[in-house]
Amino acid sequence: MFESLSERLQGTFESMRGKSRLTPEDVDAALAEVRSALIAADVNFRVVRDFTGKLRERALELEVGAGLTPAQKVVQLVHDELVELLGSTATQLEFKGPEPHVILMVGLQGAGKTTTAGKLGLLLRRQRHKPLLVAADIYRPAAIEQLQTLGSQLDIPVFSEGTAVKPEEICVHALDRARRDGNDIVIMDTAGRLQIDEERMEEVRRIYQHVHPDETLLVVDAMTGQEGVKVAQEFHKRVAVTGMVFTRMDSDARGGAALSIRAVTGIPVKVLGTSERPDGLEPF
Ligand SMILES: Nc1nc2c(ncn2[C@@H]2O[C@H](COP(=O)(O)OP(=O)(O)OP(=O)(O)O)[C@@H](O)[C@H]2O)c(=O)[nH]1
Ligand SMILES: [Mg+2]
């Protein structure tokens, strides 16, 4: 997204070069480029409108200081505003509660929760933590096997109680196990759900209330586009989502959903999924 934005802006800035002051027309020309680049990146139009409105005000106030051309100033401004929009703080995982810490993975079906749970386990173990993975998806026996396979590949223990125990109870039992075995971080993989499925959404809330997560990570497929905003709002209504994970950043996703969700809900992006492999994870 940012590559296409900067490419588009190049042309506009060429024409500004050499000017010592920006006219409102110069600013509008630059903003038109910013606007179309963001819309092309699939950013929500209201978010784009607010963003460019704020940029315009600030751009017109710009005093061109020594050493910077107006074009450079505008580039700086767009950069600063984007950083502010996407969140310059709190993009790290934070463990503030007592041990064992809990990471709760939530999200729609197929978003990448299980894969990301494994990736986080590997990352944390490399940071000298002792993670425990928990299979709290009781609706698909294959889901439990998927996590167990992942766990044995990565040599990370997996807690499971089959499909007959309620997910929130499995999670509470997992905490007991973690205390017993000295696991300091417990990563809970929940069942994927269709947003409209009220019963399953309530189940997420029950798990949340039982385990008091340090981090509740909403996993969103970067290909989701505009729908992502609604999805995030639905989850955020029921559990306090502390961070987003965008998966499939290695696809040709346009990434605008990340910006839109952040702007609309305030939830920071914390982690990016960049491949199917267990090490395909990057901090945001
Ligand atoms: N290319 C790519 N593929 C990914 C990424 N993350 C997950 N996947 C793939 O997406 C598919 C679904 O991932 P899962 O982790 O099973 O998704 P889930 O959210 O647990 O799915 P449910 O449990 O059915 O809700 C798998 O084929 C993963 O390999 C990523 O960052 N990049
Ligand atoms: Mg899964």
Taking the alpha carbons of the first and last residues, their distance comes to 14 Å
Number of strands: 8
Give the class-level CATH name of the largest domain. Answer: Alpha Beta
Class computed from helices, strands and strand pairing: alpha/beta
Fraction of residues in helices? 40-55%
Q: What is the mean pLDDT? A: 87
Following the backbone from N to C, one meets helices and strands in this order, namely: HHHHEHEHEHEHEHEHEE
Number of DSSP helices? Answer: 10
The CATH homologous superfamily of the largest domain is termed: P-loop containing nucleotide triphosphate hydrolases
Share of residues in strands: 5-15%
Query: How many strands, what sense, and barrel or not for the largest sheet?
Result: 8 strands, mixed
Question: What's the CATH topology name of the largest domain?
Answer: Rossmann fold
Bound molecules: guanosine-5'-triphosphate, magnesium ion
The CATH level-2 architecture of the largest domain is identified as: 3-Layer(aba) Sandwich
Tell me, what's the shape? Answer: elongated
Number of domains: 2
Overall radius of gyration: 22 Å
Characterize the structure shown.
With 284 residues, the protein is an alpha/beta fold. It folds into two domains: 2-86, Four Helix Bundle (Hemerythrin (Met), subunit A) (Up-down Bundle); 101-283, P-loop containing nucleotide triphosphate hydrolases (Rossmann fold). It contains ten helices and eight strands. It has helices spanning 2-16, 24-40, 45-61, 70-86, 113-126, 141-154, 167-181, 198-211, 227-238, 256-265; strands at residues 101-107, 131-136, 158-159, 185-190, 215-221, 243-247, 269-273, 281-283. The structure holds guanosine-5'-triphosphate and magnesium ion (MG).
